[in-house]
Amino acid sequence: MRYRTLVVVHGKSEYEFCKGIASNYRLSIEYDHENRGENCIQIRQLEERFSSGHFRSENALHKKFEDLEYLGRNEIKMLHLRIFPIMDTDDSPRDATSYRTNNMFNSSTFKDRITPIFNTPDLDTVLRKCGFKINSNDKIGSYGRLVNEYELQELISALDNRNDTNITVFLKYCSDLAFGPQN
Length: 183
Known about the structure:
- By secondary structure, this protein is an alpha/beta fold.
- The chain is built from eight helices and four strands.
- The chain has helices spanning about 10-25, 45-50, 60-65, 95-100, 125-130, 140-150, 150-160, 165-180; strands at about 5-10, 30, 80-90, 115-120.
- Strands 2-1-3-4 form a four-stranded parallel β-sheet.
- α1 (about 10-25) links the parallel β1 and β2.
- α1 packs parallel to α6 and α7 packs antiparallel against α8.
- The longest helix is centred in the N-terminal third of the chain and has 13 residues, at about 10-25.
- It is globular.
């Protein structure tokens, strides 16, 4: 089966969190990252990132991520593609509104397939506010334990209807992939 989901991760926390969920629920997800999240992708870099390089066209994106579904004969070759940039807002507060409203991606080929996910100020803080334990000195271990100790629905319940994040949009999407659409 070809992948239909691409997650652009801000940094290590987002990378480990998403990889853990994908692994636990056997989800086919591709990742766009800088050195597995060791180097951060900033919100202010996204506008340029999504209009150049491997995001300049469907063909270029397919060359970078060969496992993404690619319907070569169709006008829209990546019809079912969903892109989730998952970003912290603390390092680019001026760009956060444009990012959250999707206006940042107006010139992107993929505008209608991008769903911006935000965490204010950052994912670690949001999760700590919800009562989850995140050790800054052991993020890999913390995120591994988090996604192994809590079911996807528990994470959705704890993080739903918050003003500082919309990560449940991504988590509900993952739930639908894993278990089928829920009402």
